[in-house]
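Inputs:
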Amino acid sequence: MAPKSVETAPEVLTGDPKHAARATRSAGRRMRSRLLDVASRLFKERGLAGTSISDIAAAADAFPSQITYYFRTKEALFVEAACRDVLYVARAAEQAALQAKTPRDYTGALVEAVTATDSVSFFTEALTLTRRRPDLAPLVERTIERLHGEGLRAYAGQIERHGWKSLRDPDASSRRFWALAIGVTVEGHAMGRSAAEMGAEMLSVLGDQATTRTEDNNLRLRLVGDREVSNSDSTDGEAS
Amino acid sequence: MAPKSVETAPEVLTGDPKHAARATRSAGRRMRSRLLDVASRLFKERGLAGTSISDIAAAADAFPSQITYYFRTKEALFVEAACRDVLYVARAAEQAALQAKTPRDYTGALVEAVTATDSVSFFTEALTLTRRRPDLAPLVERTIERLHGEGLRAYAGQIERHGWKSLRDPDASSRRFWALAIGVTVEGHAMGRSAAEMGAEMLSVLGDQATTRTEDNNLRLRLVGDREVSNSDSTDGEAS
């Protein structure tokens, strides 16, 4: 059963059926997006068990039936909100890192952006949940592939632009970055570490990712040669 | 209230009070250990939510009251079983890696041993649980410190014995190993990867950890010099 949208777009009242359908779709997208925003905030504050569908509906000024219409279950909403959230943070991290002048600044900016929020932890809870809920796995799989694919594309672009040399296969660098972000966050939260401490730990275990050509001449580094980079994952914009 | 031990040690019947007390302590230790063994197996098969105290008691041929006597809550038993389990696997991995003739074989043996079991995943669930149960955090913190400390000690010993050169700070190498083990496992389970696939992914993101001196001369590698290694964490044997 389709829900009544709380937010009725004024265009629906104009009488043109095509216009009305478009306006309804657009109002539906806005409601869906608002529910995801509110759910992300509440889930990050209180966890899955501490947040109910009615809490989210109340905070989003919506009906509980709208949540089940758009997302079916609380768990499915949790996973979708977490996947969307980690992709936002990944994009914000790449934006922040664009200004970096050296490989070390680049890694530092990425790490700072990723550890400053609770998004990796939220996403990790979604990954853990998915293990016993295989019906929710496909979205999580696509999200991991996009994190790796977009990370690789951004890193390869940065290396190319600055003429840096990657110390390892750039594809493995992106996958290593995210696996370490998850591992360091899981450990860090259990250890009661602050965001700054997790950032420092992540920098320490990541080590240097790339070097400038000048450093290269000075430091006798082993180089992974420039590679053709495939970025087939990066064109799909659906979950952004 | 002290539980009645299902397994009454025959020595208790000898009449010597000191002997009897020692025998009771020893029977208690055996029961505790059996409960941890059974709990580990069931939790790994069915997860925390899918396993009850009565299930564990029935499988261990014990009374539910013995579980609450030794561990208080199911969550505390879960965390203790997971910590013990990951330390066993870490030790088994170091044993398996002792035979390695090259740095690459050494890393390969560690990775194979760690990804062949469900223990890292079990431990990760314990870490996630601890985040909202700070009362259970101290054991988890000690376990992470021991994983890092014992990993460092074993790695430093191996490097020393073979005359290998570590490519990075050995301390960071041990911490990186465990953070990646957690990250790759969490991602791998959500992606439905097999143990072999997780092992391959882990080797790929770990990269080379050390080099032999011959390779060193051939490959132009940047070296982290030999360091004084502190292993103050490695003497405590309580949870083994």
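The interface with chain B takes residues 47, 121, 124-125, 127-128, 130-132, 134, 137, 140-141, 144, 168, 172, 175-176, 178-184, 186-187, 189-192, 201, 204-207, 219-222 of chain A (CB under 8 Å). Flag for discussion at group meeting.
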